[in-house]
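User: Second chain of the day. Same drill as before.
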Amino acid sequence: MSSDDATLPKAYAPGDAEAKWYPFWESNGFFEASSDPADERPPYTIAIPPPNVTGTLHMGHACRTTFEDVLIRYHRMAGFNALWIPGTDHAGIATQVVVERLLRREGTDRHTLGREKFLERVWEWKEQSGGRILAQLRHMGASCDWGRTHFTMDEDLVKAVREAFVRLYEEGLIYRGTRLVNWDVETQTVLSDLEVEQEEGYAGELFEFAYAVVDEDGNELGEVVVATTRPETMLGDTAVAIHPDDERYAHLHGKLVKHPFVDRRIPIILDAELVDMEFGTGVVKVTPAHDPNDFATGKRHGLEEINILNLDGTLNDEGGPFAGLERFAARKAVKAKLEELGLARGSKKHAMTVPRSQRSGTIVEPMISTQWFVKMEPLAKPAIAAVEDGTIQILPEDWKKTYFHWLRNIQDWCISRQLWWGHPIPAWYCQQCEHVNVSREDPTECAECGSTELERDADVLDTWFSSGLWPFSTLGWPDETPDLKRFYPTADMETGYDILFFWVARMIMMGLHFMGEAPFRRVLLAGLVTDERGDKMSKTKGNVVDPLDVIQGATLEQLLEKARAGGAPEKGLKYLKKTYPDGFPEYGTDALRMTLLSYSPQARRIALSLKRVEGYRNFANKLWNAARYALMNLEGTGAKATGAPPAVTALANRWILARLGAALETTKKGIEDYRLDEASQALYHFVWDELCDWYLELSKPLLESEDAALVEETRATLIHVLEATLRALHPMMPFITEEIWQRVAKDDALGRHPRDAAKPQSLIVARYPTAEADARADAEAEADLAVLQELVTGARSIRAEHDLTRKQRIELC
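Assistant: Same format as last time:
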């Protein structure tokens, strides 16, 4: 090691280190996994939860990227053939909405452009957004195997999606049916439950009106009063329900009610499941085509399902005199007409929960529609068993109950979406015989009658269908590729708890069904990242922060400019001004990573305080200064790290090796148990409280001793502890540790690539330290030094209490 190599600048410059070492790792192939069967290293695989190509990464992504990178770097250093598969998700409706918003700003829309031109614009957006996302991942230090990057609409994944659809269809697990769905009248598509937010406390109105009771001959027998928050839906009523045990209405069994606006008589049905005798009047209107409970009631009683809505939310011909009105205008008109007819029975304010589209913000309509569905019960049973028998472990384990509850009460999955952006459904309708042709390849003629008049289904698949195949489609399925043989099943799936059902459970079901084996061994569920007040991050609140602004630094004006471009209102801008009046200095990636790691990944909410980043920047500086001290004292001495702890006799040297062992043990357990907060804090406290605050001070007189053997022992201890600490910290703080480690004198064998000794040395492939191999347990030394620490701490307290100078002696006994 030359003096130039050994000398550390006075201050750590994170930007310089990051710009140097990431290209070094990537260009030398250190991120690449080997599918060579001759590679005896056990595989360790993570498939990244693919970020949506809707914009840029936020702090939630930064948090999970850090967690996953720690796991990958740790296992790579621990001797595993570690593969981290990167990629992005096309995010169907979310991306289409973003691009449509851009088109509106340009004064046009997708219908004006046409399908082909619109899709060209979406692909342009994908290239821009996807490129930004991958660049952000690199800035976060993500050690992904970039040569295996995937996008959910890549050609090979399109092949996988079609194969999965066709197989499920041939097995009778995919069918086309008429069911109640979530309908977004703005985007005019079905929504998954994930895309619907339940807005509580909505200021609604409970409106009561009367139906005239009639017998089969039309003779009026009185009235029944019903209540509704959506009066317009009465146009689709096909029954009125009462409880079979309600004596008040016993005389109405078998009777009918007369609809006031359409020529229809509606049966009075008996239903103990729908009707609560104690609630309201004990009479319930039933609209099977526009309410989930009513839909189920309709199925029990064989009721007609009358859809009153067009796809855009206006009333169709079933609306009678109200046809053509927008739904909320129809609500007012129906109320007014009922009042005019003398059928209104009053109204009152009613706080209610309404379903609102995440994408358009409009209130979602439950609506009967013909769609494609997957039968879920046959797929759910093996997924339940895989967690019950321990094949798959879910952490935190509290989530198992929720997982089981959802799967045991699962409904068939609506997989069709009325969008242009996404995987087209591989179904073609024969215009001659109406046969549905489902095929892996585009058919040229009908398989049933031979007609060439085929029309492709205009819908696309739910985004979660392709995402559900991610752990094995990214490895080459349905082909038997070397990657699929080598890296499936994956090891860990780290993701947010909010998509346990919508993604994780579906990956488990798909993996078990198509591969015959669970797609991963552990599900590691991380909490929702919020601001420090616990509020969900959103552009309107002004609390969304780009991780790169924290890493690279940004002025307040730059933060405000970015927020304005994202559509933040004045309220959000005020929050930014108040919370970050000076913007952000350049904190560096490692400081942000350590901040994120300081929070428990298993907490339901991670209330992120960006003020903490400053503390971890100080920690990086502390580590840097400790390394400067060590390297200055070791320069020119011939001391070098060997990867093995030296034999020592001095109390301080014995003690620091013992404390290193304790820290390494806690760190290893924390990483392997997915308690990355405990792992990172063990090393933080070791470096700050033990290495820097105590050992470096204790080493000074030892290094100045006239006892040559003691000096040599201390140098060996100092360089070993520094080098082992850098190895231990590397998965968490990759840039600063590599920058320092490269200047540490060491054996040539340390940090060599396991399959390519010609590559340069790098910390990223060095052996991860363990308490057994890199430290020495020594309870006696720990106890003895604890006494010394107590004496020194006591003396410092006395000196401070009495305002004594360092030159004034204190008699301790």
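The CA atoms of residues 548 and 660 lie 33 Å apart.

User: Great, on to the next one.
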